[in-house]
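Q: I'm writing a short explainer about Cytochrome c oxidase accessory protein CcoG for a general audience and would like to include a description of its predicted shape. Could you first generate the structure from this sequence?
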Amino acid sequence: MNAPEPEPLVRTAAAQAPQRKRAAPVADAETSDETLYEVRRKIYPRSVTGAFSRWRVWLVLLTQLFFYGMPWLNWNGRQAMLFDLGARKFYIFGLVLWPQDVIYLAVLLVISALSLFLFTAIAGRLFCGYACPQTVYTEIFMWIERHVEGDRFARIRLDGDPWSARKLRLKATKHSLWILIALWTGFTFVGYFSPIRELGGEVLSLSLGPWQTFWMLFYAFCTWGNAGFMREQVCKYMCPYARFQSVMVDRDTYVVTYDVGRGEPRGSRSRKADPTAAGLGSCVNCSICVQVCPTGIDIRDGLQYDCIGCGACIDACDQVMDKMSYPRGLIRYTSENAMRRALSATVARKRLIRPRTVVYSVIWLALVGGFVVSLAMRTPLKVDIIRDRGALGREVEGRWIENVYRLQLINTTEAPMRVAIRANSDELKGIAVEYDHSADDLAPTSNRLIPVRVRVPIESAGQGTHKIEVTVTAAGNEAEGRSGAEIRQSTSFIVPRNL
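A: Of course. Here's the predicted structure. Afterward I'll give you a sentence or two in plain language.
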């Protein structure tokens, strides 16, 4: 006898929808649209307190302290974190990155993606529930909404009431606060790409440029719209993470889970009633877990792709269990295998270490280690050699063969640098380098293009192409703790055949 197919861990929208009888085709287009598209039902999340709620509050505070505060922090007389697109320089504390350092951005994106995979394989959508910007700003906007309009039932009544002076005042107050936060968020966002103190002066003097104005208002509008109106719609329909999370979790992943065996059959009862004698489970069917859910799902129906793993239902259910004098944990963070096999918490945690998480961890550690080592060993001087294509080789003063190059020198540090340029070759004897020595001094974080003439005596230069090595040396400064650098690059020296 064949075993039944296991139920999918994360239910899709089709699996969650109730089975309906197939109706006959209807010619009315409006009726057909109603069967294709779900009309949005506005969600009024109820406030809740508890351990997971406190975690969300702390993470909101930490992430926004970083986001709003970082542009105002100074480092070496400049903004500590500034992505100056006009100057093509990224300043991150003492690190200055140039367009040539795009590999670091690529590695950082790979590390971020792998971190998301690892955290999801261990404990589901932790990022969505606690650190995602959509979740963070929705929490901020809902906090304002609760303090202005009241908690869940007060907001429902207010929206159902006809327009009045009180309703207009409350709605205007709420949206005014939302718009102020959205504008400040847009201003801060642009402040990462344009010095924020100068940006603030331009805002006050109404002299913002067109692109600064556009991005500030665009980001503010997105913040206001996404966090104030769309909310769970972004998580359910716009975020791709919800769609492919099922391939990153398995039956040993810790997720928000309802204990069906303990909770069913559910039903209301008095506090003094014995649930065993009444033939009931621990679930009193109060639906508070649904009322506090920011996406409006019922976790008792099983894990769904709409669940962002915020743990609000856990806090709410624990409070109900305390009032009923039942043990906590009817809804809790655990794995599906732990729930079905009645595994202890210790055994369930041990099962988090499995091939998938081990492979993710090893790759993540290797990438992070390589990233840190590469940054630590990063050469402070960058050199690019460009041949002068206008003259491949020429005779000078009747005794020299000369090739002209352009050396692009980049000082990636925030300290002045003195360089020296020389060339050598195993094939050519008597090689000499001439250039303007006033270019020996490179200003901090500067980029300079230096014409360089490389000469070889005619008698030692055979016709054809010869390999030479150009060496650029940067002197160090022991007093500043700055080591020197030496860059060697190979290029070709051409001796024309008609000479």
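A: For your explainer, you could say: Residues 381-495 form a domain with the Immunoglobulin-like fold (CATH 2.60.40.10).
Q: Perfect, that's easy to follow.
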